[in-house]
Amino acid sequence: MSRVFPLSLRLAVVLALAAALAPVAVGAETVVEARQRLMVSMIKATKVPRAMVAGETAFDVGAVDEAVKQVLEATALMPKLFPDGSAGGPSAALPAIFQNRADFEGRLLDLEKASVQLAFAARQGKDEMAYAFHEYEAVCEGCHAKYRRPD
């Protein structure tokens, strides 16, 4: 149990720091550029456990933790990066985000929960992590299906 608490504490600190740094993270970027950058960081982070599940890379709890940290940092910032009127143009965000903001933000919380569950499952073993990863991907896909313009 002592191994779980430090991870929980680290995740809480990451979320608190990410929320505190939200205004700084955008800087000279537009909100669309900032959220696209964060989405790319989540895609890169997601590739880490995906490669482990596929057997392309060795199972590594530390790498899963780092990937989860990146996702948590991004999801903590994401709600602030969808101000009204920021759909369209280069953005893949659908107007539904702005019409259903509470649902959208709830889905970001679901992604945070799925990410933490992925980190905890990795401590139980590769098979448990694989199951949690499929749940994590389902959360991603559900949000994209409703709120992201198809490619």
UniProtKB/TrEMBL annotation:
Record GO cellular component, one term: periplasmic space
Protein's GO biological process: electron transport chain
Signal peptide as annotated in the record: 1-27
Alphabetically ordered keywords of this record: Electron transport, Heme, Iron, Metal-binding, Signal, Transport
InterPro entries linked to this entry: Cyt_c/b562, Cyt_c_II, Cyt_c_prime
PTM notes: Binds 1 heme group per subunit.
One Pfam family recorded for the sequence: Cytochrom_C_2
Domain of life, source organism: Bacteria
Gene Ontology molecular function, alphabetical: electron transfer activity; heme binding; iron ion binding
Residues that, per the record, bind heme c: C140, C143, H144
This protein's name: Cytochrome c556
Species whose genome carries this gene: Oharaeibacter diazotrophicus
